[in-house]
Automatic annotation (TrEMBL):
The keyword Nucleotide-binding applies. Pfam families: Kinesin. It comes from Candida tenuis (strain ATCC 10573 / BCRC 21748 / CBS 615 / JCM 9827 / NBRC 10315 / NRRL Y-1498 / VKM Y-70). Residues 27-370 form the Kinesin motor domain. Belongs to the TRAFAC class myosin-kinesin ATPase superfamily. Kinesin family. This is Kinesin-domain-containing protein. The keyword Nucleus does not apply.
Length: 378
């Protein structure tokens, strides 16, 4: 009995302290990542970006700053629209800034703490936001060390460690895509007319999708095989493959259930790893027909995601517009309450991408200004 009480105490303390630390770091975190220049690109074709020289280079608010500058055309300079010299600079602050030399494994060090939260029964969302070509898929899905493969390894390693404390876990996976506000099951060869309905159990904070395939995952190897095979299916499914994959949101879901018979406790967490559709704005005059429709859906769902996260951070705001897009509606229970959100804003260093980078920084700043600690909003 005494042993049981001691274990109960240790387990409670471990989970409590871990969660307190995560709340102190903020339940919503935004990390910026600049990818390296593509091979063969001339330095003059790169935007001027300044980022912290090392990981510990943080300011008093424990943030890191990134600046992006652009030479103005001489006509604008002459019209006096500039600040110092013929250059205009913008500075943004994020919880962390990863430069071009950071590796995926270093980026994962930050995410790994939230994987631990999911094992402790919290819901977690990880998003990669940015224009097409900015490094979202490299970050999330790189087959060797992307966030998804490293998350899978960590989950199964932790599960085996936590056995010593009496925990038994089961893990289930789902993999889906949202394209033009329609759900596509990446684990099934659907006939195309399968209907997927999102259902919420608001009392228990659980979400299910009817007809969506759910696969029990018994080991890291099994989970990785499933992920890699389906990710490959995704990119070769349509003739215009790169187009489709960059114009849809893909969501890899891990449902993690734990039970500890020694202390009679159970927990259930859901980890959502999301590679968002490319955020680039199409020149309106170019967008016609299907392309225009896709762009409208993407713009709407991305701005809705920003609005939802933003309104979750407003203590007095009671209305969170989850219903305005399929993505936010689906993730309702993984975005609100005491769940954790991490957003990577991926940036391309090319000078031609300057305006898109600026848009991404602004979006990420809106999301990052939402500092949600415990109890501010349920
Ligand atoms: P997105 O998914 O945002 O469209 P990708 O992940 O496909 O972008 O990346 C675009 C290109 O840049 C790819 O050729 C990819 O291999 C390369 N790339 C992206 N991030 C990195 C990185 N951190 N290191 C090396 N190459 C990268
Ligand atoms: Mg991609």
């Amino acid at each position: 009995m005494q042993m049981k009480n001691a274990l109960l105490h240790v387990e409670h303390e471990r989970r409590y302290l871990h969660n307190k630390l995560q709340e102190l770091k903020g339940n919503i975190r935004v990390y910026c990542r600049i990818r390296p220049p593509s091979p063969g690109v001339h330095p003059q074709q790169l935007a001027e970006i300044e980022y912290p020289a090392d990981d510990n280079d943080v300011d008093e608010s424990l943030c890191q700053a990134i600046s992006i500058s652009k030479e103005l055309p001489s006509s604008e300079y002459l019209q006096g629209q500039t600040q110092a010299r013929n250059k205009t600079s913008y500075t943004f602050k994020f919880d962390k800034v990863f430069g071009p030399s950071h590796q995926n494994s270093q980026v994962f060090d930050e995410l790994s703490q939230l994987v631990q939260s999911a094992l402790d029964g919290f819901n977690v969302c990880v998003f990669a936001y940015g224009q097409t070509g900015s490094g979202k898929t490299w970050t999330m899905s790189h087959p060797g060390d992307g966030m998804i493969p490293l998350t899978i390894h960590k989950i199964f390693d932790d599960i085996s460690d936590l056995k010593q404390n009496g925990w038994e876990y089961s893990v289930e996976g789902q993999f889906l895509e949202i394209y033009n506000e329609t759900i596509i099951d990446l684990l099934a060869n659907g006939s195309g007319d399968t209907k997927y309905d999102i259902k919420h159990d608001d009392i228990n904070g659980k979400t299910t999708i009817s007809n969506l395939r759910t696969i029990r995952l018994n080991s890291a190897q099994e989970a990785l095989m499933l992920f890699n095979k389906s990710a490959l299916n995704r990119s070769t499914a349509s003739t215009n493959s790169n187009e489709r994959s960059s114009r849809s949101h893909s969501i890899f879901v891990l449902n993690i259930k734990g039970f500890n018979a020694k202390i009679g406790t159970s927990c259930e967490g859901c980890l959502n790893l999301v590679d968002l559709a490319g955020s680039e704005r199409l020149n309106n005059s170019q967008a016609k027909g299907d392309r225009l429709k896709e762009t409208q859906y993407i713009n709407k769902s991305l701005s809705c995601l920003g609005d939802v996260i933003y309104s979750l951070g407003q203590p007095k705001n009671n209305h969170v517009p989850y219903r305005n897009s399929k993505l936010t509606y689906l993730l309702k229970h993984s975005l609100g309450g005491n769940s954790k959100t991490l957003m990577f804003v991926n940036i391309s260093p090319a000078a031609t991408n300057f305006n898109e980078s600026l848009n991404s920084f602004r979006f990420a700043t809106k999301v990052g200004n939402t500092k949600r600690g415990s109890g501010i909003r349920k």
